[in-house]
C-alpha cells in the first residue's frame, strides 16, 4: 500500500510596487529538513489514523511551521496529487494551496526542520530540487495568476 502524506503550499503576498503585477509580490514558504539530504519542501506529513487528508495538511503545517488554520486562507479549487517512490515504496502526496492572512506571521519550526525561507517562484524552484515539486510550485503560481 502506498504511503500517504498531505501538506499545504503556503504563500504570502507582499505589497507590490505600483508598476508591478500583483503576482510579482507572491512568496512561497519552504522548510529545510534537519534530516537526510536537508531538502526543501512545503510543510507536509503522513496521515494519522482517523484523520482526513485536509486535517493532516493543517496539522502538519501547525506542527512543522507553527501556523494555525485560523492564520491561513485555503484557496478554493486547487489540489495537487504527486506520486513517486521512496525507498522503493510508492508514495502519494496531496497538496492544497493556502495564503497566510498576515504576511508578517512568525514561522516556528519543529525539530524536523532547521531553516525556512520565503521565496519568489524562481528561487523556490531552485530550492525545491525535485522536478515534480518544481512543476507543482509553477502550477500553483499559474493558478494564482489566473485568479487575478
UniProtKB/TrEMBL annotation:
It holds the Pfam family NUDIX. Keywords: Hydrolase, Nucleotide-binding. InterPro entries: NUDIX_hydrolase-like_dom_sf, NUDIX_hydrolase_CS, NUDIX_hydrolase_dom, Nudix_hydrolase_domain, Tetra_PHTase. It catalyses: a 5'-end FAD-phospho-ribonucleoside in mRNA + H2O = a 5'-end phospho-adenosine-phospho-ribonucleoside in mRNA + FMN + 2 H(+); P(1),P(4)-bis(5'-guanosyl) tetraphosphate + H2O = GMP + GTP + 2 H(+); a 5'-end CoA-ribonucleoside in mRNA + H2O = a 5'-end phospho-adenosine-phospho-ribonucleoside in mRNA + (R)-4'-phosphopantetheine + 2 H(+). GO terms for molecular function: bis(5'-nucleosyl)-tetraphosphatase (asymmetrical) activity; nucleotide binding. The keyword Nucleotide-binding applies. The keyword Membrane does not apply. Its EC number is 3.6.1.17. It comes from the Eukaryota. GO terms for biological process: AMP biosynthetic process; ATP biosynthetic process. Catalyzes the asymmetric hydrolysis of diadenosine 5',5'''-P1,P4-tetraphosphate (Ap4A) to yield AMP and ATP. Exhibits decapping activity towards FAD-capped RNAs and dpCoA-capped RNAs in vitro. This is Bis(5'-nucleosyl)-tetraphosphatase [asymmetrical].
Amino acid at each position: 500500500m502506498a504511503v500517504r502524506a498531505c501538506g499545504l503550499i503556503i504563500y504570502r503576498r507582499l505589497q507590490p510596487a505600483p508598476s508591478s503585477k500583483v503576482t510579482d509580490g507572491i512568496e512561497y514558504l519552504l522548510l529545510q529538513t534537519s534530516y537526510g539530504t536537508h531538502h526543501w519542501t512545503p510543510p507536509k506529513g503522513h496521515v494519522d489514523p482517523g484523520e482526513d487528508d485536509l486535517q493532516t495538511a493543517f496539522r502538519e503545517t501547525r506542527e512543522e511551521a507553527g501556523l494555525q488554520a485560523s492564520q491561513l486562507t485555503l484557496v478554493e479549487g486547487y489540489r495537487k496529487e504527486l506520486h513517486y517512490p521512496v525507498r522503493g515504496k510508492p508514495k502519494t502526496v496531496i497538496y492544497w494551496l493556502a495564503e497566510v492572512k498576515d504576511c508578517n506571521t512568525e514561522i516556528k519550526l519543529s525539530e524536523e526542520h532547521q531553516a525556512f525561507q520565503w521565496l519568489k517562484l524562481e528561487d523556490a524552484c531552485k530550492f525545491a530540487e525535485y522536478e515534480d515539486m518544481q512543476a507543482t510550485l509553477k502550477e500553483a503560481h499559474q493558478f494564482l495568476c489566473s485568479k487575478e
